Amino acid sequence: MTATRETTQLPSLPSVYRSRSSVELKEFFRQRESVVFTLLLPVLLLVVFGAVLNFDLRDGVSFTQYFMAGIIAAGILGASFQNMAISIATERSDGTLKHLAGTPMPPSAYFVGKMVQVLAVTLISVVVLLLVGVVFYGIDLPTGTDWLTFTWVAGLGAAACTLLGIAISSIAKNGRSASATVTPFALLLQFISGIFFQFSEIPTWMQTFAALFPLKWMAQGLRSVFLPDALAADEPTGSWELGRVALVLGIWCVLGLVLCVRTFRWQDR
């Protein structure tokens, strides 16, 4: 008599990736606080600043047109850097990461799920902001190859901020302490990176400090697609410096990946 052994076949890697991505998206949209602060806050800021600061900078360019590039950059920062730093720290402190590490799920599936979440939330945030800007404030959308520039600047910026957020999550003890640490720092970067004010009006030493981080370069790259070339003269070097934008954001991607590999942990110390 021949004994037959039943073997359980594990799901394929793409199937695991899809399943984990679905879980990440569901968890995000079920958390009211995450949805409010990540998706609705940039929209509210656009509405408030667009209504209050309704004036022309020069050459017929409104401040709202200038502000659109900055608020999209801030929205990407919230969907990637802040979202990752807080959510991963929370999952580490409540034991979720420790539990996942003990399952057959490959570790890569967890990070793929997080990246899909960031991509989806970023796309929704950008679309909503553009829609509000066009409908209520008459924002001029990019045209032609400017959309290509918009895509790679937003993509590189989101990647750099996501990796940095994952790395920062290992510093915080839990989600609450991560929020208390990351949110003020993100707000500081927004104020000195040309989000709420013209970058040329910020003191030089603040400009220098802001240039150390990806948000300033992401906002500058996005300004190049929303503003006429004449306003490039207001930038520190008198140009959009798209080559340097790509270089700095690329360096932050590499640096963020190195920090993730060296600092990420599945459970509290």
From TrEMBL:
The chain crosses the membrane at residues 35-55, 67-90, 111-137, 149-168, 180-199, 245-264. Its main location: membrane. Residues 33-267 form the ABC transmembrane type-2 domain. GO terms for biological process: response to antibiotic. Pfam families: ABC2_membrane (PF01061). It comes from the Bacteria. Coiled coil: none annotated. Belongs to the ABC-2 integral membrane protein family. PANTHER family: NODULATION PROTEIN J. This is Transport permease protein. It comes from Blastococcus aurantiacus.
